């Protein structure tokens, strides 16, 4: 829902920006937060980058410089694997790549098949 930037969408990119900023500022650097941020960035990171450009990069840099080191101190199970995924996402600029399925085809095979 967040990756669709329509004026009538109550949960558009502006809402996504606020959610991500609040998650990084207010929630503890823990496994649940890291997983939620990871899923959010995989789904909406590309659209956020297209819309907010430099400001989004600054937010990601802040996340890399301040939030990921906090996450490194977390001792919950499998948190380091999520941290590694986020670090890989940030260092390789995966926000520059459209997520799979973002642009749905206008016509698919069901348009031609009749029962």
Instruction: Tell me the strand percentage band.
Output: under 5%
What Rg, in angstroms, do the CA atoms define?
17 Å
Shape: globular
Note the total helix count. 4
Q: Give the rounded overall mean pLDDT.
A: 87
Structural class by sheet pairing and helices? mainly alpha
Main sheet overview:
none
Number of strands: 0
Poorly predicted runs = none
H and E string: HHHH
> Could you tell me how far the N terminus lies from the C terminus, measured between alpha carbons in angstroms?
32 Å
Q: What share of the residues lie within helices? A: 55-70%
Write the layout of secondary structure elements.
Layout: H1 13-26, H2 31-52, H3 54-72, H4 79-91
Describe this structure in words.
The chain has 115 residues and is an all-alpha fold. The protein contains 4 helices and no strands. α1 packs antiparallel against α2 and α2 packs parallel to α4. The model has no long low-confidence stretch (mean pLDDT 87).
Short description:
This protein is an all-alpha fold and 115 residues long.
Which keywords apply here?
4 helices; globular; 0% strand; mainly alpha; single chain; 115 residues
